[in-house]
Amino acid sequence: MSRLRKKKELSLIEELKERDLLEEGESVDIPDLENEDLIEENSLSVMVRCLNPAVHKVGGLVKALPPIWDLEYRVRGRGVSEHRVQFIFQCEKDFSFVLTKGPWFGNGWIVAVDQWTPNPRPDFLNQISFWIRIKGLLIHLLKKQAVESIISPLGKAHAWVPADKPLQFRKLAQFSTGEQIWTELTYEKLLKVCFLYKRLTHDQEGCPYNVAEVRSDVRERSMLCRSTPLRVTLDTDRRNKEK
């Protein structure tokens, strides 16, 4: 007999957030800070973003990633927000290895990794580094220009893919001769993705887009069921009158 899992109790702050009761609060003036030492201290660090919060917990990533990198004793990790972890390295070599040898995974799901900076870019922690293989191009068309044209919206053959967009697995290559060829894109090291919407942020069982469609379909079916008895009643009344 399975035991019911006890629902985790929310903290006061979590309860207020869930009920949307947190106010903006009063502003506080902060004096000028001399923070060059902190910037220097964090210069050899990376930020990691949990793309799939259902399987990625901050504390779990702090423990899981250093062994994957084979850096258990040469890196220090800490959670800095609900879905972000910072790892501080002791040397440039280890720091560069983590930045350049991705993509990296936790529980089979990809995480976004980027160099820490005090002034992050708009796409900070929203890009995934992939090597992409193209299948389908004929030998006489397998030129660098063709490959780069197919991958162009993503970058080069070594591409930075937006983490919040669906992955593209097929593209139609159109040549100046009028020839059209469907190509397949293979993302090296990719382990898991939502098979319904090709997203990196969830699996198909917990797909929020699919749930929305199911709810819409249920509403339509419910409206149909409510209207059906009315039509039956009218048809019955008409038959009675004809008698």
UniProtKB/TrEMBL annotation:
Residue span, Zinc knuckle CX2CX4HX4C domain: 164-209
Domain of life of the organism in this record? Eukaryota
- Which residue ranges does the record assign to the DUF4283 domain? 40-120
Recorded hits in PANTHER family, A to Z, give: DUF4283 DOMAIN-CONTAINING PROTEIN, GLYCINE-RICH CELL WALL STRUCTURAL PROTEIN 1.8-LIKE
Q: What protein name does the entry list?
A: DUF4283 domain-containing protein
- Organism taxonomic ancestry: Eukaryota, Viridiplantae, Streptophyta, Embryophyta, Tracheophyta
